[in-house]
């Protein structure tokens, strides 16, 4: 399966149903859940359930990142350029 992108229409409906304030909290909550899952996985690296939890929380975070991009009308193209530039700087400086 190629990279999934949440349809903007889903976010339109979610904002309408739950309100933009509540919906804009979701990415923060999901990122906190991912942090928690990574901490648990680091504490118990052999436990498959924590590895699965990291995977699940990454999915949630990626979905809410799609929401941020939709909400702020950010461009995937521009973000990809910034990602590449950041990695190029990292490589030049540290590798
Ligand atoms: Mg979650």
What would the keywords be for this entry?
95 residues, mainly alpha, binds magnesium ion
**Helix count from the secondary structure assignment:** 4
Please indicate the percent range of residues in DSSP E strands (runs of 2 or more).
under 5%
Poorly predicted spans: none
Number of domains: 1
Q: Structural class, from helix and strand content?
A: mainly alpha
Biggest β-sheet strands, sense, barrel = none
Ligands, ions, cofactors: magnesium ion
In round numbers, the mean pLDDT is: 97
**Termini Cα gap:** 32 Å
* Helical proportion, percent range: over 70%
The ordered H/E elements are HHHH
Number of strands: 0
How would the global form be characterised?
A: globular
Which radius of gyration do the C-alpha atoms yield? 16 Å
Notes on the structure:
- The protein has 4 helices and no strands.
- The protein has one domain.
- It starts with 7 loop residues before the first helix and ends with a helix.
- It is an all-alpha fold.
- The longest helix is centred in the first third of the chain and has 24 residues, at 20-43.
- The site of magnesium ion has 4 residues, from α2 and α3.
Task: Summarize the entry for a quick read.
The protein has 95 residues and is mainly alpha-helical. It has 4 helices and no strands.
Write the topology of this structure.
Blueprint: H1 8-18, H2 20-43, H3 48-71, H4 76-94
Helix pairs in contact: 1-2, 2-3
Bound molecules: magnesium ion.
Magnesium ion (MG) is lined by residues 30, 33, 57, 60.
């Amino acid at each position: 399966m190629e990279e999934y992108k949440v349809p903007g229409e889903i976010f339109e409906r979610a904002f309408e149903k739950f309100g933009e304030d509540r919906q804009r909290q979701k990415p923060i909550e999901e990122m906190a859940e991912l942090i928690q899952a990574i901490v648990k996985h680091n504490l118990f690296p052999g436990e498959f359930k924590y590895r699965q939890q990291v995977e699940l929380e990454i999915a949630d975070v990626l979905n809410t990142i799609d929401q941020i991009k939709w909400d702020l009308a950010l461009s995937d193209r521009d973000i990809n350029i910034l990602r590449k530039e950041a990695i190029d700087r990292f490589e030049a400086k540290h590798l």
